[in-house]
Amino acid sequence: PGPDGGKxxxxxxxxxxxxxxxxxxxxxxCFFRATGRVELWDAHSGTAQACPxxxxxxxxxxxxxxxxxxxSYLIVFSPGKPLMADEGRTALRLSYEIPLGREWxxxxxxxxxxxxxxxxxxxxxxxxxxxxxxxRYAPDNGMPGNxxxxxxxxxxxxxxxxxxxxxxxxxADGTAWTPVSFSWQYGVWDNPGAQGYHGLKGKVDDRFFILxxxxxxx
Length: 218
Prior knowledge:
Layout: E1 7-13, E2 16-22, E3 29-32, E4 37-42, E5 47-50, E6 55-57, E7 60-64, E8 72-78, E9 93-96, E10 112-113, E11 127-128, E12 134-137, E13 158-161, E14 165-170, E15 178-182
Antiparallel strand pairs: 1-2, 2-8, 3-7, 4-5, 4-8, 5-9, 6-7, 10-11, 12-13, 14-15
């Protein structure tokens, strides 16, 4: 997928090939040594969506990774025919739903113990409950009037972590301007550098900006 390679785990479960892919740059084209119907499983929503493929032959399958860099993918290959990507069908589609035949009661249980401030400052002797961390967003200029409707398709919007967002633009010689996203409180997402995972603690380190995709701080 690129010079950094990303990370991948592969398991064979029954007739399915399951890949967990992480740290792949958004827009990268990845090759999988598997064929068949391809789905993207979402652990947050519990849904499975058909994942369009760029090409597929006996050697394997090529897929374009459309999530933000740093997000993980759970890509599942099953026997069947793949959904081919084209200009009119780039968005992920819902593959199937599981109907619930009766009323269900669900409960979200807190699991993060913050006694020592491992997850949030100030520390407190208690648990942190479920939180929405990832959101889709788009500039508010030129938005259609129905963007707030439940059936509006926001698949082409950018995806990001709350508290983190584009703060400035950068450009290397001969390349296009690209946004640099970070949090003024916590730094770069999942790469805190010198300030550590507990945030900046009121002081901005001289090495705050990570310019080389997280490898080297300047």
